[in-house]
Amino acid sequence: MERMLSGIKPTGRLTLGNYIGAISQFVKYQDEYELYIFIANQHAITVPIEAKELRQNTKDLVALYLASGLDPEKVTIFLQSDVSAHAKLGWVMTCMSYMGELQRMTQYKDKTAKGETGITAGLFTYPSLMAADILLYDAKYVPVGIDQKQHVELARNLAERFNNRYSDTFVIPEPLMTTVGQKIYSLQDPTKKMSKSETNPKGTIDLLDDPAAARKKIMSAVTDSLGIIQYDPENQPGLANLLTIQSVLSKEPIESIVNRYQGKGYGELKKEIGQTVFDFLTNLQTKYKDVLDRKIVDQVLQNGAQKAGIIANKKVQKVYRKVGFTITK
To answer: Is residue 129 part of a domain?
Structure first.
């Protein structure tokens, strides 16, 4: 099996967009790749976050991953902070990065463009740590959405730069773009991504939302005035978003859904999607509570860190020897 790696920041509650765009893909990938998934808790502190909130988010995230069908016997799940090699290689990659490269990265670029103050050095340099996260494991593939592709590109550039300077050390990773459900949009503003930081609660469905409340959010989702059920993301982005949600959760092709609703109205379609979301959340949350009741999160993370650490520490030792940190070859 070829190796794949992905990470997620525990900086908010997971959304339906996270499930459709990432988690549902991971469940499929775990049977196709040697999959490593880490919780990027070191990235989480690039902006202020309370320790209590970070702990709870992390625990919920792992429990939801397991409830969604990720099997710890097939996939290695671990905390970034539990494997010290991430921080160690992160510093080396920071020293390999150019200021101009980091200034072009989306988060820093967007915040400075808005004139935000109090931006931390960590927010500026975290893409170098993210590159280290990827390169530690010689992962061939990194599944990403469109807005994260530049981070893999930076990892590729740094890997090539290091390899050229010190000899072949890192596998050059490739971004793996999903085809369906790659990005789910706000239910209230379908021009914006459904986000953990959404200001309008009606625009986002959290995976731990009350299922009945989530169904209401679907019923009040923004559509358009055309009144025609078709998949047209450019002219009917709200409707296209709803069709994508229904297609992924029900596993029915969008074309089939559209054909079933010829001559019918948006209200009837929303009713079906709302019920699909209700059933999905009810089932997921039942499994989530079972994971917490069995108290298996800590053991899964401990096992994952041990397995990941073997690979990551070996890579760091190799890097340290090549850059001259160790005085014996």
So the answer is: yes
